[in-house]
């Protein structure tokens, strides 16, 4: 919805944002900020989807055959079981959809909005006309709006215009009225590629420019993963085999008995027994519930196929700041006028020699910072310069120079009311500051040596410089100022206490952790040594740029630290690891990290400090910008895949006795053992076992002590298929041996069928324990974790079998006899 520009202009008088009450009232009036709401499938849609499944159609066919035979009780019994199977399947499908919908909500973009006078992060769908929104580099514009504050803001509007060149936005009033109007306008869906600004929302949802042209950003589309494609192909091959066998069985039955209708019933029974229609359901349920488990560990899954790949990760490339460290920076060391001062909580005041350094450090920083480093500068300035002439609340920022890969330094030009010139403050990498100050070789070497000494203590080091501008035309670049060196500042970002343990867990799991950072090599080495990485060899970005691909391939398996790396060099490192056959997971948070995140097998974006474009390119998003959740996600990915393989192995094994119990009695001339109602009963065991029991199976103790899974491994290995076939065949021989033995001893066919069916059900339960495998010693934390779903299913099956054997009424429903009835 939209408001008029006059309304927006009126709201601009109060730029502290809306109150929560006013925002709620406006949302009730205008609705949610969505172009096209994602369709949420309800119970009815889910039910219709289930009713189109082949198994349901086969059950209806079997019921029709019973009616043709005049056996209405059998037909109605089968229909009752049909309803039960449909209800169970629909419940599982609906539960899966709910999980995916919840994940979709978590994936919705966030917006920084001013509410009740404070800056808050809210879902972009909650924005209303009149909201004051802060947009910054790497974020998507969450609604149409008008700028009232901009700092070197450039926006990519190619989604609307097709023009790939970023467009500068401003609101300084120096442009002609039509041009100024265009420069102030921001559009929903465009990407901020540089700078930051504040806007007032003028239109939301379908009334935005993007909404009016019918484009849609709705929802996350989940393409079928490689394993899902394999599963579908697996089921299709089984379906072809099932069709052929059903025709052959029907013909054989007709040849032996001369009757077509019972022959058709036998064919349907066999089709129901063969078709492993649980497998696609298993895949969907496991991936959806697995994504929910991973989200509980602090990692949001944006693409479900990333869950499959987690168990294959062999190289984990991580940033230092905020991942291995706490991203809680504090000014720790100041160096000025040849003196060094350690800054900590016990320092009551700062010496005069460091006042100018801290003053210009604050002036070179953002006025309202988001970055932890900038906030650290502001905190130090307020603490040690508060009440002095070195803090300038009445100065106005009039010129900004952004840092770039070519010159990692930024400058601010200020208007001072009591000065005839414009002070310019600059901060950046020490080598860049030395270059800007035009220091000679000796001075540069001395300062870089000092910065290296500070970096060796794990500090992030920046240089600070100052200049005076006479007030004429501002130069186009920072090199045109006459800068003078002020000093160095060292920031400490403490290492996360759990980082070393998490890296050790990766090493035990055969996963190589590689640190890729923009910091100095000495800083990276100090942090690496603290967290347990090999710090003996470091490759810098400068050295990397001089290597060709062949040289990089020769050294990449021997290096764990890459320092002073530019964001675009991350992509080259990812490609190098991939050429070696590694499965790469890569963390990133910036706009320029997006290509590397997309190129990695698993891109991991920072959810708290990451740019929106990085989150869109990534497969996983960290809800907590830490290293530990990544390790937890890998552990859960391995667990999910292992349990999935157990479930599919069980599914293959459990269908073999059903096939044998349908075909062999017909070929041997025995009375039929299984009818459709028996297959339905067995399906009521198989479905919850596959999707509930195995999904809840705890991971084994050695989950993170195994090598990564081979990339592109098949859905089921030949070994697993052979083991499943052997286990199923053994169960088949036991059931049919019992049936044949009872018939040969003149036992009534109904009684023989009863005990054979009970044996078949018992075999199904035994195959559950076979598929779980021999459970090794678990960790103490897992020792008390029983799979309650397993024992619940086992207990329920036991009670139903006892009821069948004891109650004649229940036995008749299955065309069996109550063998234990008094």
TrEMBL record:
Q: Does the keyword Transport apply?
A: yes
**Annotated transmembrane regions:** 75-91, 234-255, 261-289, 647-667, 673-694, 715-742, 754-774, 786-806
Write down the chemical reaction(s) this protein catalyses: Cu(+)(in) + ATP + H2O = Cu(+)(out) + ADP + phosphate + H(+)
What is this entry's stated membrane topology?
Multi-pass membrane protein
Kindly give the Pfam families that the UniProt entry links to this protein: Cation_ATPase_C, Cation_ATPase_N, E1-E2_ATPase, Hydrolase
Q: Which GO terms describe its cellular component?
A: plasma membrane
Q: Which keywords label this protein?
A: ATP-binding, Cell membrane, Copper, Copper transport, Ion transport, Membrane, Metal-binding, Nucleotide-binding, Translocase, Transmembrane, Transmembrane helix, Transport
Question: Domain Cation-transporting P-type ATPase N-terminal spans what residues?
Answer: 6-71
The biological processes this protein is annotated with in GO are: intracellular potassium ion homeostasis; intracellular sodium ion homeostasis; potassium ion import across plasma membrane; proton transmembrane transport; sodium ion export across plasma membrane
Any idea of its EC number? Answer: 7.2.2.8
Which segments does the entry list as coiled coil? none
Q: Which family does it belong to?
A: Belongs to the cation transport ATPase (P-type) (TC 3.A.3) family. Type IIA subfamily.
The identity of this protein, by name, is P-type Cu(+) transporter
